[in-house]
Design goal:
The chain is an alpha+beta fold. It is about 25% helix and about 35% strand. It is globular, with a radius of gyration of 13 Å.
């Protein structure tokens, strides 16, 4: 289960909050419009990813904290913007 303090890194202007539960958060990245689910699993934070046009989520990675999961999501988005759209994103 998440506490509000643990989930605070997802409450930024970078994400649109789609669903906010005790056991997960579903968010959408503003740059790529990809959807993500962040939830605790087995002592880690599991991140599931669904590209904009996909129908299903897939397991993307595990992280130690929500903040590190958000950092990985933003790195993925920067990679996608650079490789798919030829746009360099310099957000931290």
């Amino acid at each position: 289960m998440f506490t509000q303090a643990e989930k605070s890194p997802i409450y930024t202007k970078y994400f649109t909050l789609l669903s906010d539960g005790v056991s997960h958060a579903e968010i959408r990245s503003i740059d790529t419009r990809d959807t993500w689910i962040v939830r605790p699993e087995n002592g880690l934070i599991a991140t599931y990813h669904k590209p904009r046009k996909a129908r299903r989520y897939h397991h993307q990675c595990n992280s130690a904290t929500v903040a590190s999961a958000v950092k990985k999501i933003r790195k993925h988005d920067a990679w996608k913007m650079r490789t798919r759209y030829g746009v360099w994103v310099s957000r931290s």
